[in-house]
Amino acid sequence: MQISSNKSSAEDKVVLQLTGRFDFSARHIFKEAYTPLLQPSPEKIIEINMAGVDYLDSSSLGMLMLLSEKASEVGKSISLTQPNTTVAQILDIANIGKVPNIKIIK
Predict the structure, then answer these.
(1) Under 8 Å between Cβ of 55 and 21
(2) Which among 60, 6, 52 is positioned nearest to 29, based on CA atoms?
(3) CA distance 48 to 66
């Protein structure tokens, strides 16, 4: 998986762009990408753009839950944006959208 980070035109969020397979092998790169975003900053939303994600497994769902918990502790929220149909179905089946600190934007 590849991850790029950039600030959005909206000053209150930062965007992580994910590309490829989001699975257990991506755990280190994902943590390295989000850890700096948990520091105090004006950005209160961490947007994870999933348009380029072609595979999602249960370990990635766990990583998203962990990120949500850590973000909540520092007053930030998570938005999962632009998942393809398959990824959106997996997120729906796992009830990720019902987690209070995570919003799914299709």
Answers:
(1) yes
(2) 60
(3) 14
pTM score:
0.92
Any residues with CB less than 8 A from the CB of 73 and at least 6 apart, and which? none
Query: The tokens 């999962």 sit on which residue?
Result: 80
pLDDT digits (tens, 9 = 90+) for 14-60: 999 999 999 999 999 999 999 999 999 889 999 999 999 999 999 99
Nearest of 70, 57, 72 to residue 31 by alpha carbon: 70
User: In the chain, what are the domains?
Assistant: 2-105 (3.30.750.24)
Q: Provide CB contacts within 8 A for 29, sequence distance 6+.
A: 1, 3
22-41 in b/e burial notation, b at 16+ Cβ within 10 A? beeebbeebeebbeebeeee
Cβ–Cβ < 8 Å for 38, 70:
yes
